[in-house]
Amino acid sequence: MGSVQTNDGASAGLTADSTRKVIVAGAQLGAINVDTPRSEGIQRMLKLMDDAHSQKAKLIVYPEIAPVTFFPRHILEGEELEQYFEREVDGDPTQSTNLKPLFDKAREYKMDMYLGYAECTGDEHVHYNTCVYYSGQIDKVVSKYRKVHLPGTFEPYERKDATNQLEKRYFKPGDLGFEAFRAPNLVPDALTKKSGAKLNEPDTLGKGDPIVGMIICNDRRWPEAWRAYGLQGVELMLCGYNTTAWAPELLGVNSKVPTKEKTKTEALFHNKLCVTYNSYANSCFSINVAKCGMEDGKYPLIGGSCIVDCDGEVVAEASTEEDELIVAEIDLGMCRRGKEKVFAFEKHRRIEHYGRISEQTGVREPEFL
Ligand code: CDV
After folding, report:
1. pLDDT of res. 257
2. Catalytic one among 131, 217, 274, 310?
3. Are 99 and 119 in contact, with CB atoms under 8 Å apart?
4. Domains, the chain, with CATH or none
5. Assessment of whether the complete model's pTM goes beyond 0.90
6. I need a surface site. Which of 21, 34, 160, 261 has the fewest CB within 10 A?
7. Residue 6 in this model has a pLDDT that exceeds 50
8. Where are the alpha helices (H) located in 64-111, listed in sequence order?
9. Interatomic CA distance for residues 65 and 67, integer angstroms
């Protein structure tokens, strides 16, 4: 399997598997306005995919609801709203009219792809904030995820100039849970069923095809989501986002950073805090990708797209608020250290004390003295 032990690592009982290296890319998108044609957004995404291909990336990650403006800030109904949703053909997003060129090119390049879009189901016409993982090598949508943590409000704010976040109005909460999956052939020589190897044995852990998890934007702020994947051995988390840099009604105002400019710095800080800590605490890499810049001249979205390693360190980071590709070669074999030592869940977790986390939603303070 090409597993190597360094002298120091060997004495500490650590293994690193050099065959689990893969080049990955995050395709940050700059602003997409209300009047930007869908085809223009798709063309920009294809250009970033060309760039990723020329840099030998085997996986590309796009933002949340990638090809269109972040429409949940607007009050919309009827066709004005429906135009933003993608319709799958018999449940197959690869055939959806708008998205098809992306799947076609990923297939041509044999590149895997995380693609975020607003989904309208065919049968019951239900709306979700969705992403899929498409394997360009085997031409298959391997997994779909629907955003669980929908931020914002159902009703618009009363103040006319407030920035709305009407995700609770336009989407149903995701119904697919946090199901990890394996990305076929993303690394060479992975153990498969055919080998007869047993799952979850000390010598087969971390040796199959890479274990991937998907979340969308606000989900990244919830450690519960990461841990649900962590408990399935996730090695690579993928997250697209549209994060407003200034929305006082929605986010409140921090008295330490009351100006619009400084609020953006705070939003960037919180983004990085979430993805670095949770990558560390679940010993996984993460690829976190923004749609950013000033949409329609007045709605600022943060950039800060980054690839984070399993120690919580940023290994690639966007420097603009425009279309920009970030690329890194990551070694998923590095995940073993955290999973076998500090975050060896099977040795250290104390589930008898975690009941509240799944039984209770809101806060219940202790009795008054
Ligand atoms: N699209 C999002 O989910 N945005 C939220 C904002 C509203 C806080 C986020 O968590 O980035």
Report:
1. 79
2. 217
3. no
4. 21-354 (3.60.110.10)
5. yes
6. 160
7. no
8. 79-82, 100-109
9. 6
Active site residue 64: yes
β-strands 112-120, 127-135: how paired?
A: antiparallel
Ligand 1 atom closest to Cα of 271? Answer: 11
Query: What is d(CA 243, CA 183) in angstroms, rounded to the nearest whole number?
Result: 27
The total number of residues shown for the chain amounts to 369
Task: Please give the pLDDT value at position 141.
Answer: 98
Reading the block at residue 246, the tokens are 């200034």
Is the torsion defined by CA of 222, 68, 167, 267 positive or negative? positive
**126-162: pLDDT as tens digits:** 999 999 999 999 999 999 999 999 999 999 999 999 9
What would the two tokens of residue 224 be? Answer: 């519960």
Q: Whose CA is nearest to atom 3 of ligand 1?
A: 218
233-283: pLDDT as tens digits: 999 999 999 999 999 999 998 888 778 888 999 999 999 999 999 999 999
In angstroms, what is the span from residue 124 Cα to ligand 1's centroid? 27
Element (H, E) at 26: strand 21-28
Rounded distance from Cα 42 to ligand 1 centre (Å): 23
Q: Whose CA is nearest to atom 4 of ligand 1?
A: 243
CA-nearest of 242, 223, 197, 330 to 280 is: 223
Asked if 25 and 316 touch (Cβ cutoff 8 Å), the reply is: no
